[in-house]
Amino acid sequence: DFQFLGGGDRKTLRVIHQLSGMVRIEGEKRKVPLTFDGELAGGTLDRLDESLLETFVADTFEGMVYSVRSGGAVRLIGRGFGPDPRVAPNYTGARYDVYEVIAPARSRQDRQLQLKRYYFDSKTGFLDSTRYSDPSSSPALQVETRFSNWRQVEGSAYPGRVDRYENGNLIFSFIVSSASSRPRRDATKFR
Known about the structure:
Elements: E1 2-6, E2 9-18, E3 22-27, E4 34-36, E5 41-42, H1 47-57, H2 61-69, E6 73-81, E7 96-104, E8 113-121, E9 127-134, E10 141-148, E11 151-153, E12 156-158, E13 161-166, E14 169-176
Antiparallel strand pairs: 1-2, 1-14, 2-3, 3-4, 4-5, 6-7, 7-8, 8-9, 9-10, 10-13, 11-12, 13-14
């Protein structure tokens, strides 16, 4: 369960993510859930809905792995990236291992190829952010999805917070109130 903060609204949402690449987002005031059954998106009414689905379908570590498993190309850009030492000579903050993935945008009907960069904390291995340009609007949006406050639940790691930025502006935040692992759900629940 997540607390959703977006567009001035605060509401509780439930995000169900199945490792086979399926996502279902249910809201307390939403009659029709947002869904992605591994092939098609359902329930999207506007740009915010599309952004919500893309965040959980493709911007996560699982989304990265699924894109690669489905034929996307992956490349390690490098390990231990930090700021330019000429600009920040005494930098002691986080360093990042950066992977680049090019694959079709799975949750969109046009399936346009999209290049995303995934930044993993070099020390913890957790995904810190996913960054890319979204050409579906003109001019293209610069998107960054940030993952923070990682915690272990039932042997799996979950971010405690997910923030999506477009052109540097916060679009929405998810604050995790609870997370759990459950048995696989019937695929029809994602349609």
